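Audit log entry. Action: structure prediction of a protein-small molecule complex. Ligand: flavin-adenine dinucleotide. The ligand was supplied as SMILES and no pocket hint was given, so placement is left entirely to the predictor. Protonation state taken as written. Sequence taken verbatim from the request; no trimming, no tag removal. Recorded inputs:
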Amino acid sequence: MLRRSAPFAGGRNAVVSWSFLRRCIGAGSTHDLHSRSMNTARSYDIAIVGGGIIGLATAQRLITLYPNLTFCVLEKEKQLSTHQTGHNSGVVHCGIYYKPGTLKAKLCVEGLDLTYKYCDENGIPYKKCGKLIVAVEDKEIPLLNNLFDRGKMNGVRDLTMVDKKGIKEIEPNCEGMFAIVSPNTGIVDWAQVSNSYGENFKKAGGDIYTSYHVNDFSCATESSRSQSKEEGLTHPVTIHGKDVPAINCRYVITCGGLYSDRLAEKSGCSRVPRIVPFRGDYLVLKPDKSNLVNGNIYPVPDPNFPFLGVHFTPRMDGSVWLGPNAVLAFAREGYKLWNVNLRDLGDALAFRGLRKLMYKYFTFGVGEYYRGIYIAAQVKQLQKYVPKLTANDVIRGPSGVRAQALDVDGNLVDDFVFDGGVGDLGSRMLHVRNAPSPAATSSLAIAKMVAEEATQRFHL
Ligand SMILES: Cc1cc2nc3c(=O)[nH]c(=O)nc-3n(C[C@H](O)[C@H](O)[C@H](O)COP(=O)(O)OP(=O)(O)OC[C@H]3O[C@@H](n4cnc5c(N)ncnc54)[C@H](O)[C@@H]3O)c2cc1C
């Protein structure tokens, strides 16, 4: 389901101002920006806020479609792809799980093919190491069968079902009764893919400004136009950054991940769907145990719970991650248990939708915290699939934070949500408010959809 609810001057060949550039990219950053002078007035046709995989895929798509328009990407961190895009499982999903007919299902299936093609064309390594979804108890077998049918309905290719013996042939250390085999599921470094979108965007003439924290948007009115009459008329939207010069543009697209709701609010959109951050902690197999698995091993997801369950995921560097769990994070970018942001926490707890969700999943939530703290408890879950695994085989690994969109009734908003706003400003904004997992896999397909939406809304 798709829901809709002091200026610069510049052109494509402006000269770089090093002092500003240092502030923009941080000295020595490998994200060398397209050379630009930022001490003179600057304006663009379209500014894209958010340098994660969705913002960069969208930027790349739009500049290809509209080479005569000018584009910039504004990212608050020193580097691109730092948040969800740089903190995930690294799986190229095949699209089994999602309800047939939804955009999530369609875009994932399409996104997998587009991803492999893009990686081939751009020299990005990936591995089609495949995936097993394993039923370990009788009661999971009907669910596994449903999942298999769902995958077929979604158009997932080459799915097969194997029994205990078939599981052993693929994963000698894995125990299970039956498993779905998805040979086209793969792994890739999503940050590398996303940064490559950024490079292609720059090659096509786009500008990327890192360390550009967007604070607010305003739209020129008749009175404000007197300051810079011509700019006000042609590029009426002003983006106000924190300690950086403002940027003028005609239209704005926001792809703000964990801050997508707050960015949308700035152009008069509703506060819901609200983003609630859910942290996922990974364990990592000790290097001498990395050969315990060959590919991805996933449980049969419990339909009563919103997340996929902890899994075994090989990484491109040869390591194997186990997880992630799902616990409420106390800060939107809180990668550690003790990271607390009072505004984020207060905002989340004051939201009726989260309280309802917590009430509904209270026991599950407590279990997730417990397993997050006690490694042995998490390992016990994983031993159902690989009995040889012991707590001595793992160490604590990194974490990621999911931008989970919630409605006021505590339901997880599962599909993409576009929004605009009201008035002069709202009609020039397109907010991508929810791009849930597997949005990395679907990024190129999502970008096509965002570009179509922008074309329609902005009459490009
Ligand atoms: C733990 C975890 C595991 C996952 N596993 C997978 C997987 O295996 N496969 C898969 O396909 N997907 C996976 N996903 C989902 C996928 O990573 C995300 O859906 C995707 O990365 C979202 O990209 P994004 O660009 O919307 O968000 P982000 O990557 O979070 O990017 C948003 C960007 O906006 C910037 N921003 C925010 N506010 C501002 C502002 N005011 N000014 C300027 N910039 C701003 C942020 O700094 C950030 O860089 C996983 C996600 C998580 C968290």
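Audit: result stored. The mean pLDDT is 88. The first strand starts at residue 43 and ends at 49.
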